[in-house]
Design a protein that fits this description.
The protein is 33% helix and 26% strand. It is α/β, with parallel strands linked by helices and 321 residues long. It has 2 domains: 170 residues, Peroxisomal Thiolase, Chain A, domain 1 (3-Layer(aba) Sandwich), CATH 3.40.47; 143 residues, Peroxisomal Thiolase, Chain A, domain 1, CATH 3.40.47. A 5-stranded mixed sheet has the order 1-7-6-4-5, with helices on both faces. α3 crosses α4 and α7 runs parallel beside α8. The radius of gyration is 18 Å and the shape is globular. The structure holds oxa(dethia)-CoA. The site of oxa(dethia)-CoA has 20 residues, from α2, α6, α7 and β12. Oxa(dethia)-CoA binds next to α2, α6, α7 and β12.
Length: 321
């Protein structure tokens, strides 16, 4: 059977690290509050010359090098972002040009923090139907540019970065590698709990992030537990079969609660929120790449990716490496 097999991964973070202490100098917060409520100790913030497309290009470049695949072999680029360089053209086309992926299809996916799961499922479907053979799936964000730096309830939570994976169509056995199943959902009735208060067709401005954090937290834990069960049921695996969970990194307490609901020890969960903060669509591929590179994720491992964010949108994918 044809599956989308992960051939490589890469990531990129801005140069500048901003600690909680540094933030506490400009906004009414404290290192203790941020650590206790979120697990975040620092975040990376894009500086001059660093944009969503430059971070995405660097991550994609690293993923291609890791996979040993030439940019010319890429026939599809799906880039998840809520912070594109421009309203259009799609940031994916800037990456295509920068890498020289001549003739590849390239488009963006807007599903905010679960964008990487939406992008992965889209690329996987296109590979399975024969529309693509070798895809770059990227999550990239510069959320710092849409934060209200006077709103302590949001500005301490987010960071910038990018992660990418290379997926290749391969004929594999039933127990072989590849994306095994993905499930995606949305609940637009909760759009006002996490949104940006601007846009090209309404205010004509970019807008800033607004979030009712406590409400989002409550929905996240419930929705994630449900979609994880759904993917397990679709594939016939149980939580005990999972080697690693690579979750969206919004809050350490959400990671703990989700692991508890699944009955999984927290040491099977890849955690980067302490250093990266919430990088929206970039957080899953950033965590995935970190754990692949440090040797935790190994060939043959069963890995669950999951995320939930603005929309609401949420989803999960089970992958055999
Ligand atoms: O990535 C997309 C999905 N996003 C998420 O999943 C985020 C989900 N939500 C969360 O992670 C948490 O709800 C937050 C981290 C955003 C907030 O934590 P919380 O425990 O839900 O706190 P809260 O919003 O209930 O606020 C508690 C208190 C409030 O003060 P009062 O009303 O109790 O006096 C806030 O004003 O903490 C206050 N507060 C702060 N204090 C110091 C809010 N932000 C800060 C801050 N520093 N930065």
């Amino acid at each position: 059977m044809i599956r989308s097999v992960v051939k490589g991964s890469g990531s990129s973070l801005p140069k500048r690290v901003v600690t909680n202490e540094e933030l506490a100098k400009t906004v009414d917060t404290s290192d203790q509050w941020i650590r206790e409520r979120t697990g975040i100790t620092q975040r990376y913030i894009a500086g001059e010359g660093e944009t969503t497309s430059t971070l995405a290009t660097a991550a994609a470049h690293a993923a291609l090098a890791d996979a040993g695949i030439d940019a010319k072999a890429i026939d599809l680029i799906v880039l998840a972002t809520a912070t594109p360089d421009r309203t259009f053209p799609a940031t994916a086309t800037l990456v295509q040009d920068a890498l020289g992926c001549d003739g590849a299809a390239a488009f963006d996916v807007a599903a905010v923090c679960s964008g990487f799961l939406y992008a992965l499922a889209t690329a996987d479907s296109m590979i399975k139907t024969g529309m693509a053979k070798c895809a770059l799936v990227i999550g990239a964000e510069t959320f710092s540019r849409i934060l209200d730096w006077e709103d302590r309830a949001t500005c301490v939570l987010f960071g910038d970065g990018a992660g990418a994976v290379v997926l290749s169509a391969e004929d594999v056995a039933e127990d072989g590698p590849g994306v095994l199943a993905s499930r995606l959902h949305a609940a637009g009735e909760h759009g006002d709990l996490l949104y940006v208060d601007g846009g090209p067709s309404t205010t004509g401005t970019v807008g800033k992030v607004r979030m009712m954090g406590r409400e989002v937290f409550r929905h996240a834990v419930v929705n994630l537990a449900e979609v994880l069960e759904e993917v397990l049921t679709a594939t016939g695996y149980t939580a005990a079969d999972i080697d690693w969970v690579v979750p969206h990194q919004a809050n350490r307490r959400i990671l703990d609660a989700t692991a508890r609901k699944l009955g999984l020890p927290i040491d099977k969960v890849i955690v980067t929120v302490d250093r990266h903060a919430n990088t929206s669509a970039a957080s899953v591929p950033l965590a995935f790449d970190e754990a692949r590179r440090d040797g935790r994720l190994k060939q043959g491992d069963l890995v669950m990716l999951e995320a939930m964010g603005g929309g609401f949108t949420w989803g999960a994918s089970l992958i055999r490496l």
